[in-house]
Amino acid sequence: MPTAHDISIDPLETLDARFRAAIGAAFPELPPEGIETHIAPNRQPKLGDFQSNAAMPLAKKLGKNPREVAASVVEHLDLAGVAEPVTAEAIAGPGFINIRLLGDAMAASLTRLDTERLGVEPPERPMTVVVDLCGVNLAKQMHVGHLRSTVIGDAVARLYERLGHRVIRQNHVGDWGLPIAMVAQKLVELQQGGRDLANLSMDELNVLYRSAQAACKAEKAALALTMKVGGHPKAEAELALRIADAEESLERAKQRLVKLQSGDAESVAAWKRIYDITMGACLATCARLHANVTEAASAGESAYRDELAGVIDDLVTRGIAEEDGGALIVRVDGLKEPCIVRKSDGGYLYATTDLAAIRRRAGVLGAERIVYFVDARQSLHFRQVFGAAHRAGYDRTPAGEVAQLSHAVFGTILGEDNKPFKSRSGENVKLSDLIDEAIERAGRTVAEKNPGLSEADRAPIAEAVGIAALKYTDLSTERIKDYVFSFDRMLAFEGDTGPYLLYAVVRTRSIFRKAAEAGVDLDAVASAPLMLEEPAERTLALALLRYPGALRAAGESFEPSRLCAYVYSLAGAFSSFFDQCPVLIADTQAKKMSRLRLCSLTARVLTDGLETLGIPTVERM
Ligand code: ARG
Q1: Which residues line ligand 1 (CB under 6 A)?
Q2: What is the pTM for the complete model shown?
Q3: Cβ(137)–Cβ(541) under 8 Å?
Q4: How close is the Cα of 143 to the center of ligand 1, in Å?
Q5: Does residue 519 come out as left (phi exceeding 0), alpha (psi in the -120 to 50 range) or beta?
Q6: How many CB atoms lie within 10 A of CB 349?
């Protein structure tokens, strides 16, 4: 007799276990790990809630007739306590096995889901997970490219927290090296010219960054070419002068870097100013995005500067790094290009810092999973670094376990012209401008839909709707895919959008206001017996039961889009239920209370799902 333990809240999991057992018993010759149950929502809801499509591939493997295979599976199948018994008649077409869940079993599972944690019990052994997200660079404005790393990274961090794991967010800020020294040099020069650096803004810093880059860029190739083809002597002389200037700027920046590295007070002060301005702006933008990236999460490249020499020493002593044309490299299995860990001029690289970071994250912080939300163009970098870290054993936790390292790549945000999203003048779009515009447009739509709202009431709603629109579009697109940025599409109140989902939550909550006005005893709703009779009630119940599984699947794949798809389908199931099943005017008191309990569960699961995605909800819209 199966016990409650054999029944997971998610019917897919329960059915998978029962079918696995049946297939194993019917065909003992199959290795248990190779059994696939192929259970999916039924394509013809009239025939059942779920179906197993396992018989066809199984028959092929065993060289048997699929209907006969299905019949033997059914013969060994025990669905007691879960679904209606399956008979040979339930086998359809070439061998689909149709399954209809028991209403009582669904109600019992829903009751188990109806806890504060909504059926998501903490794991027996919580993992430590490092989430590498945001990754801004000093002196550079956050632009649209940082949206995905921040928003998707934060959603995955929230997912793992929600599942009961320990999450450490790491904002691997690009805050060290020559480019920063170039800007620091500029700052020192400005200060020497009498400029008070206290009132330097992020915008100004961004301009300084670009001019520093330009000043150091020697147009050597252009000069060589002009010399060779023989340019005008005056043009040649002018070019030579510019190159000399650039080389001088570069030289000064290099000296500034040396000073910075040795702790020279003036240089460190300039660096600190750049750091404070950039991080102030970055963290403010993250806060507006409702992304949990704070000072505590900041572990930039500079945080590893004192560990780089040690990493190199270690790699050399243990024979993992080898010399190659003056540089030091680590060869990685399966990759043509090795991981360069030290340049021939003795300088360290982006990869060296990332190796030190892995060593700290696994070896000191104890991360069992480290996942990087960085765009797809860095995929070779991460393959090199992961390979080198593994060879060196830097991916081991203090318990000796090998951490799982993943580069969670994401696609590009495109403009209407299908090219990377830029402003009309061809510049990167500032993230804060994008947020402003989303909120402003949301405000206009909210005012249109609800003209009665006062300005003061409208502002927080506009903010929530704008942020939900922006984030939901980004999160609901499969991570790997590019998408076209469109305010009109993301702000629509219909379809798979943030505003639609916020609206769905508002609707579920408003029922309770009406119920209270009608004098319903709301405290009794929480323990009302659930009656799942109408098809729309069953569909809604099934959708609710899938919640814990949807969270787990999204977490395992680092794919918030799966949770988005879940939340959207739940909102759809609720909408049909609401159209088809009267709640406050149900025929009987028992039905009314059962339906109110379904509404309450839906409201809580939707709210929890959106909050886990990092999308705050509102009471009214
Ligand atoms: N600052 C880097 C960039 O702009 C992103 C950092 C990603 N994280 C890392 N551990 N490498 O490209």
Answers
A1: 132, 135, 137, 172, 174, 354, 357, 372, 374
A2: 0.93
A3: no
A4: 14
A5: left
A6: 18
